[in-house]
Amino acid sequence: ATYKLLLLPGDGIGIEVMAEVKRLIAWMNQNGLGTFETEEGLVGGAAYDDAGVAITDATMALAMAADAVIFGAVGGPKWASVPYEARPEAGLLRLRKDLGLYANLRPAICYPALAEASSLKREVVDGLDIMIVRELTGGVYFGEPKTIVDLGNGQKRAIDTQVYDTFEIERIGRVAFELARKRRNKVASMEKRNVMKSGVLWNEVMTALHAREFPDVALEHVLADAGGMQLVRWPKQFDVIVTDNLFGDMLSDVAAMLTGSLGMLPSASLGDVDPATGTRKSMYEPVHGSAPDIQGKGIANPIAMLASFAMALRYSFGLGKEADMVEQAIAATLDKGLRTADITSEGCKVVGTREMGEAVIAE
Amino acid sequence: ATYKLLLLPGDGIGIEVMAEVKRLIAWMNQNGLGTFETEEGLVGGAAYDDAGVAITDATMALAMAADAVIFGAVGGPKWASVPYEARPEAGLLRLRKDLGLYANLRPAICYPALAEASSLKREVVDGLDIMIVRELTGGVYFGEPKTIVDLGNGQKRAIDTQVYDTFEIERIGRVAFELARKRRNKVASMEKRNVMKSGVLWNEVMTALHAREFPDVALEHVLADAGGMQLVRWPKQFDVIVTDNLFGDMLSDVAAMLTGSLGMLPSASLGDVDPATGTRKSMYEPVHGSAPDIQGKGIANPIAMLASFAMALRYSFGLGKEADMVEQAIAATLDKGLRTADITSEGCKVVGTREMGEAVIAE
Ligand SMILES: CC(C)[C@H](C(=O)O)[C@@H](O)C(=O)O
Ligand SMILES: CC(C)[C@H](C(=O)O)[C@@H](O)C(=O)O
After folding, report:
1. Considering only residues 108 to 167 of chain B, which have any Cβ-Cβ distance to chain A shorter than 8 Å?
2. Do both A336 and A222 map to the same domain?
3. Same domain, yes or no, for A248 and A284?
4. If contacts are CB pairs under 8 Å, which of residues 244-263 in chain A contact chain B?
5. Which residue of A has its CA nearest to B167?
6. Which of A163, A322, B84, B145 has the fewest other C-beta atoms within 10 Å?
7. Which positions of A are catalytic?
């Protein structure tokens, strides 16, 4: 089979880490490990500079037609004052929404070799393996009204709207419960039902779904603020965490930072499986951002991006063996003591983006 | 002067830790350190059991008339299925809203004696001293519509609304900048301007306020998710953090947990100063909750509650010297090696709520 990939490097270090994925794809093509056709497009600030929007309709059409989108990162101070509708993040949000990528999978894994890089005590994070399942196409990110109105007298009023329908909560819940069955069989659902009506509905739908379809999985309800606390106190208590778009944004960033491996963490954003073709829309991106402070220096860690491509192999193309190969190559490279600057520790060899990418491919 | 206090112990360990404040008040009255008149009321689950609401109008009237409200904690599994409008938290939210307590001050301090109790490495948290200034009467907590509608077909739609007006952002910003001037002169303003219109307005108002009234204070803007990450990575980079109601809820809980001193942390919720009387409405409560899992065991840590009363002495009654006394007594008690179960470590003596309260008073 031939797979069509759309590569969207975006801005900042997105471009640098995507270069390593291109190298990996070329190597796989050459060595008969897959037939990948790639196209490349602009998104974020790069698209704005080129066309005045954060993503063009033409690029969106490519994304719709691709078997998977591989995404780098967007944003940077350069675009701090572009109009709200054209800000770099709007490109990312449009991709998520228009491709229907409602399920964002964010593993928070602490690589034993990197436990020292965490600000948490080793015993708190060593061996940590959490999967955060974040709802990605609903909530306050997309609800209307979302506006600023001028009230006169120098006063403005800003409004954002969090909206969730039953079906949106059910389908993300299903993703979480199904993942839990393949892991440690535990789901923690996080919301603020004590303050938000969307939390009340979220809680109610998860409870009913659990009773109806997943009684074999352990479910606990945790208030999102308490969940943030517990993540810091003793993260290993969690297996799968399922939560809404905004809480997922906060909680997954906190969880990622706990691991000391931010530059290592991949993510997958998935739509529904099309019953006709058996395929699903999908996008893969590192959890880290465009890191304008280190852009152009060639020191960014490409591992999160490479691991995101491994997730694509597994979730979009059923190439589980090949995905394992990539992940094992990453682990082996780390075991040899190679590190980018963000994860270095005593006795390790610091390398740049390209050297790290090449080392992983060599493995 | 005679000060009128309304004590609202609430539920769970709220009742147990409030008992120690009562002991402290009695001792201060006896020793001529103040003249405090106290009344007591029900709030939360306790009020619901008694009157079917989370706080009665009569108790609200007492709160309006008091010079300060001292609040314990509310909630617990016992009230998991009471109607939404009567849930325990509704009492707390009504107090905040009706008293106009828009400024929530949450210090996150790591007591050196307790640095070991943190899940973070000692060097990351030792000596940590952050002040989180959380907006408390606006945002998604109170915006309308806030509702669940039945769409038919087994589908419901939940809606919450985040609303912020210019003046609400300005007044909380002023509190933050003024506090920073008495501290390390740095404010970090946190929002999600890349996704939320309220974040855009928040950012704009803080920037303008800073330029107009506080150019001498250093201001940085941090995206709330990145802020959560930075809190975990290197919290000492922050001095004052100012943020909205919901982000403040999450971020202050994470910050509190970092310190390893959750059972130690007080908070103050303040309204505007009345130009006629020079006084302001105020409420003081521990950052921790009602902890149903340990209620009734007499092991809860009363220090957060006692420290909250110290904040009342300082912010509501101008009794700075007396506040210092209470805080020094807490530090001295810890120095002697007395600990409640939540903060114990090797070589310390574990005591219960009452023994800890008495030890602080003895100091
Ligand atoms: C860039 C931004 C719009 C995005 C989000 O808020 O979802 C990012 O923080 C993320 O978590 O993917
Ligand atoms: C009890 C709850 C309503 C409250 C809040 O969400 O504000 C609590 O979490 C807090 O932080 O004071």
Report:
1. 119-121, 124, 140-141, 143, 146-148, 151, 154-167
2. no
3. no
4. 246-247, 249-250, 253-254, 256-258, 262
5. A155
6. B145
7. 141, 192, 225, 249, 253
Which one of B212, B234, B258 terminates a domain? Answer: B258
Whether residues B187 and B290 share a domain: the answer is no
Whether A32 maps to a domain, the answer reads: yes
| Within-domain flag for A115 | no
Q: What is the 3-state secondary structure (H, E, C) of B14-56?
A: HHHHHHHHHHHHHHHHHCCCCEEEEEECCCCHHHHHHHCCCCC
Same domain? For B231 and B318 the reply is no
B249 and B138 fall within a common domain: yes
Task: Measure CB to CB from residue B254 to each of A163, A164, A254 and give the nearest one.
Answer: A254
User: What is the count of structural domains for chain A?
Assistant: 2
B316 within some domain = yes
Exposure string over B300-334, b if 16+ CB within 10 A, otherwise e: bbbbbbbbbbbbbbbbbbebeebbebbbebbeebb
CATH number, residue B163: 3.40.718.10
Domain boundary among B242, B258, B274: B258
Q: How many residues does chain B have?
A: 363
Residue B192 · residue B244 · CB < 8 Å: no
B92 Cβ inside 6 Å of ligand 2: yes
> Could B232 and A254 be called an inter-chain contact, meaning their C-beta atoms sit closer than 8 Å?
yes
**Same-domain status, A144 and A190:** yes
**B196 Cβ inside 6 Å of ligand 1:** no
Angle between helices A303-317 and A320-335 (to 10 degrees): 160
Residue A216 lies in domain = 129-258
The verdict on A354 and A272 lying in the same domain is yes
Does residue A363 line the site of ligand 1, with CB under 6 A? no
Partner residues linked to A216 by β-bridges: none
DSSP classification of residue A273: E
Q: Is there a contact between A90 and A51 (Cβ–Cβ < 8 Å)?
A: no
Q: What is the pLDDT along chain A (363 residues), one digit of tens a residue?
A: 899 999 999 999 999 999 999 999 999 999 999 899 999 999 999 999 999 999 999 999 999 999 999 999 999 999 999 999 999 999 999 999 999 999 999 999 998 888 888 999 999 999 999 999 999 999 999 999 999 999 999 999 999 999 999 999 999 999 999 999 999 999 999 999 999 999 999 999 999 999 999 999 999 999 999 999 999 999 999 999 999 999 999 999 999 999 988 889 999 999 999 899 888 999 999 999 999 999 999 999 999 999 999 999 999 999 999 999 999 999 999 999 999 999 988 899 999 999 999 999 999
What gap in Å lies between CA A209 and CA A174, rounded to an integer?
A: 8
Residues A88 and A155: their CA atoms lie apart, in Å, by 28
**Interacting residues of A320 by C-beta distance below 8 A, sequence separation 6+:** A313, A314
From the CA of B136, give the closest atom in ligand 2: 7
B306 and B357 assigned to the same domain: yes
Q: Specify if B113 maps to a domain.
A: no
Give the tokens for residue A21.
């994925």
Cβ contacts of A6 within 8 Å, gap of 6 or more = A38, A39, A40, A41, A59, A62, A63, A66, A68, A69, A70
The token duo for B65 is 């008339």
Alpha helices in B71-165 (DSSP H): 88-98, 122-125
Contact (CB<8Å) A121/B119:
yes
Q: Point out the residue among A195, A198, A226 whose CB comes nearest to the CB of B141.
A: A195
Under 8 Å between Cβ of B6 and B69: yes
Residue set of the binding site of A for NAD(+): 76-89, 289-301
